[in-house]
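Justification of resources, computational component.

The compute hours requested in this renewal are based largely on the per-chain cost of generating structure records like the one below. Each record pairs the submitted sequence with a full structure-token output. That output is archived, and it is also reused by downstream analysis tasks.
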Amino acid sequence: MREAKSFCRTCIAQCGLVLTIDEERIVSVRADRDHPVSNGYACFKGLQAPDTHYGPGRLLHSLKKMPDGSFQTIPVEQAFDEIAEKLSTIRATNGAEAIGLFRGTGLFHNSTGLGIQAGFLGALGTPSLFTTLSIDQSAKGIAACRMGSWQAGRDNLEDSDVVLVVGSNPLISHSAAGFLVSDPIKRLKKELARGLKLIVIDPRKSELANFATIHLQPYPGEDAAIAAGLLRIILTEGWHDQAFCESHVSGLDALREAVMPFTPERVAAQAGISAADLRATAELFALQSRRGGVNTGTGPNMAPRSNLSEHLIQCIEVVCGRFKRPGDRVTNADPLGIQQDYFAEVVPPFAPWDLSPPSRIRGVGNLFGEKLTGTLAEEILTPGPGQIRAMIVDGANIANSVPGKADIVAALKSLELLVVIDPGLTPTAQLADYVIAPKLQFERDDLPLTLGINLHMDSWVQYTPAIVPPPAGSEVVDDWYIFWSIAKRMGLALNYGETLLDMETPPTTNALLAIGMQHAALSFDELVERPGHIAVDPVPPRIVQPARSGNNARLRVNPEGVLDELSDVAREMALGEMPAFDFRLQSRRMRDVNGSIGMQAPSIRHRNPRNPLHMHPIDMARLGLEPATPVEVVSADGRIRAVVQPDDSLRERVVSMSHNWGSLEEDPEDWTMVGSSTNALISPTNNYEALNAMPRMSAIPVNVARLAAN
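The structure output for this chain reads:
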């Protein structure tokens, strides 16, 4: 028996763990009480390593689909031979753009697997990269680009008087980047005891809302109207930071005029909240407090008009000037990124979607070098130059996670080649021609996730070596090795970052990690030599400097098209049309899974056998439904089945359900065992954002009825 310390790579919290190992197998996992960032906190999903590593659902060998549709094991090197040959043929016949790559949440938490993919795509010469980012919270990027951003960042939580949280529940998701990620409950309680005021806007009285000073509980999908109402109160009362706006903001008068129709009374009637509570929210945030910003989540970012909502919510932060100023501390500089100084100045607006030609699908753009996942099915099914004919899917279950389930399943079935890298036979893997079985997190050397910004409230980095070998007799491989091996067979020269790799002898994982840390605050060797392989504050707190000479950029609160869209919202409010559906379906995070990660573990599935439809008991009584009653959920674009679960944390006329569940074909007999995919209720082409093709994935109008007996 031995113990080893590592950290979890199930979500961005990356909590410290202690693993107990017997004969090179993990037998138990507990939170590391000595970890300087997570401080002994870890959630249930992060403690299930024995189940995920050794459970019956894990693939230990790669698979090849046979002509009859069955799978047979295949030696992994033979699989690489065959995959490389097929990719070479498709590339030669149809061009490099015909080969696509989908990067999912599971891959984002694998530093070398993530790191090698840019080189692989570049060597192939294909621009066809898709990720989960464009169907998660891409509106944040859209807003930051159209408005500009503050180079020094928003106020630190520990320096804040107030925080406004819209549609986010970090106590469950652990995914609010830069806000309550690690050890969230104790950190929140500490700040509240200090005097922090918390405002939560959420249709559910969530775990976070239980701590709120003010909780607005609106109907889902009304975020734009609520934000406009708050801005109207703040600007008409003169509660904004006038000096900051005069120096750093443009378009304020146009914004003030555009929000005038959004009186507290009209917003309250539209959103189902109290006008007095709306005013109290504006007063607490803008008048009674001087420091503290805004945090948003999937609530506004998956609802209709997500780009407008996110822009207006960020405008609240902008007009109140809730950013670091000269002399403030930056305490969470990214130790793995390029080191920089911080200045109290604006990063000017820009339009990255204009840097590439419009897509052949709906004329949408390209977002930060990615094609848009909302168009993926069309990219595969639409004939013509650029049609995707082969896909490699790494760390994602896109058959369940991409909106428009019937279309994406049909698209995946139509491919000439589908390669899925996944430890389980997910619905997506069931469609694959080849399934490559990868190593799991405690079988590989690794570093924490970084996306060029620090996702934490602290500056820290930790190296973990592989803690245990893969199960005896298995043939699992590192994700990076898959791409290196295919590239070698295709005769491609592969870069990892700025380094050209030897294509005859594979590198080690540690060699790749060292390359990836070339611009970090400390070298890979220095990190490995630290006690516990961990460095806290490798970047000492930086002091924000005054704006650099010649920087006259301003935050633009009235970018082209935004205020016109807001006028459309005002007109719709004035019409007051009767809804055609009785409920709005809100997307919901589950405590024990991250997307679809964790669904293969028996211990997690025992606690979560399916994704129920949560409904207020009053609504259940009105419809004559008992707990666990089978129901049918119907939207304008599809229907699914579920069982009802009472939930008085919801408001009436709102139901909620987690996504990423369900079987491949949504078989009527399967849903009781594996849940249902809410993406079957969504059309990616009927209600989507123009710039990022983000579909309406939450606040979906639905009806609910008892499922008729067969």
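The first strand starts at residue 2 and ends at 7. The chain has four domains: 2-54, 63-134+357-447+464-519, 138-347, 581-706.
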